[in-house]
Amino acid sequence: MSSTNKTPYLELNNWVGSDIPKRTDFNEDNNIIDLAISRHVEDTDAHTTTAEKSKINQPFVVVPYTGNGSSSRQITITNDFEPKWGIVFKVSYTPSIMDIDNRTEYNYFGVFTNVGSNIGLSLSGKKLTVQQSATSVLGNEIRSYNENGSAYVIIAFR
């Protein structure tokens, strides 16, 4: 015989002094508790999943690359997410250098977004296209995001 009373929320056995508990009563209660806890733990609306925690804990990714000198090159930034924005820069270099004799500025730093970017950078999904200008692109400016043998870093944000 199961209990005379039941608990209000999970309806577990709640015996009175005259009740005679049986092992099946306990087993049924354990199954009810186990099912309730498993549903709660697996409820992704109530809990943050491991993948979601990873997104919160790592809001950006750093991708190093070495320039190969080609005029245009596509680099996969990440497999985990599509970046919303980011920066590219040449390692151990100033953002730009001005060659006064030739009246030319060499740019080694750029910003990209998923809605528009600096000239010389283009983001599409998880892929960033970087360009290496051979001639000036804006007046006397050369974009240098893929200089042969140079080390660069991309920092992309969620």
Give a quick summary of the entry.
The chain has 158 residues and is α+β, with helices and mostly antiparallel strands. It has 2 helices and 12 strands.
Give an overview of the whole structure.
The structure is a single chain. This protein is α+β, with helices and mostly antiparallel strands. It has helices at residues 23-41, 50-57, and strands at residues 5-6, 13-14, 60-66, 72-76, 85-90, 96-99, 104-107, 109-113, 121-124, 127-131, 141-143, 151-157. The strands form 4 sheets. Strands 3-12-5-8 form a 4-stranded antiparallel beta sheet, with no helix packed on it. The longest helix is centred in the first third of the chain and has 19 residues, at 23-41.
Radius of gyration: 30 Å
Helix content: 10-25%
Low-confidence sequence ranges: none
What's the tally of helices? 2
Strand content: 25-35%
User: What is the arithmetic mean of pLDDT?
Assistant: 87
Which word captures the global form?
rod-shaped
Which tags fit this structure?
158 residues, alpha+beta, 4-stranded antiparallel beta sheet, 3-stranded antiparallel beta sheet, 12 strands
SSE diagram, text form:
Layout: E1 5-6, E2 13-14, H1 23-41, H2 50-57, E3 60-66, E4 72-76, E5 85-90, E6 96-99, E7 104-107, E8 109-113, E9 121-124, E10 127-131, E11 141-143, E12 151-157
Parallel strand pairs: 7-11
Antiparallel strand pairs: 1-2, 3-12, 4-10, 5-8, 5-12, 6-7, 9-10
